[in-house]
Please model this.
Amino acid sequence: MDKRTVFGIALCAGFATSALAGPQTFTIADGNSSAEFDAASGQISWDIDGVNQVFAQEFYFRRGTDTREYRVDSFNLNNVGNFTQDTNPFTDTRDDAFGSLFTDGAGLEIETLFTIRGNAAGSGSADLAEQITIRNMGNSAVSLSFFQFVDFDLGGTAFDDFGQIVGGNTAQQSDGSGFQMSETVATPQPVAFQMDNSFVLSGLLRDGDIDNLDGTSSHSGDVAWAFQWDITLEAGDSFLISKNKSVVPAPGSLALLAGASLLGTRRRR
Model:
């Protein structure tokens, strides 16, 4: 039994939207890279030269009145709509940006925007820029905690990684297949972080009580990490999180790319 079996985000004017009758998936691509998103569960893949590097990326929230964390998805919030767009049509004609908007129906809005940038085929490298905008469209102040959960399986394998948090806002991860990744939160600085075993960290955010990240800064094995922001929004206020992910091969590891794409140990959701 693989880990995915066990493990059981106002749209911009002019973009096409789609109301959800059920779970929908959206794919964006550029150069040698593509990423897939599911409105019911978050980001579910990031392929670079045929190797899927991501097991899951999810967002969670906890309002001041909540007694647990909730995942940002179409089960816990209203998914108002989604869009894809081609932002660089002169170099690649595929859609490379994906946006999604969720609301709780009482004024809280969470909007996500992902933009992928690939590189030349065989380079083993790509970037993913992300913006999360949280708005209070209600008539009174809202306090909440917001969490980002990320589980990379670099090189398509799960249990041979090392990860660390540097400076409180940068996650770094490497693995035995020779891939390296980093994510830097450009703004604002998270108030807490945790690098841990993926099952432990996912369970922390999915259990039925209030949890906060504990500041653990490194872990080896099946690595995942999370960042936390504690926010108070007055009526009409918004909060923007801006960050960027990069995956690159370690020096001398490009020859491993073809073999990595054939590995049968990749987990499926």
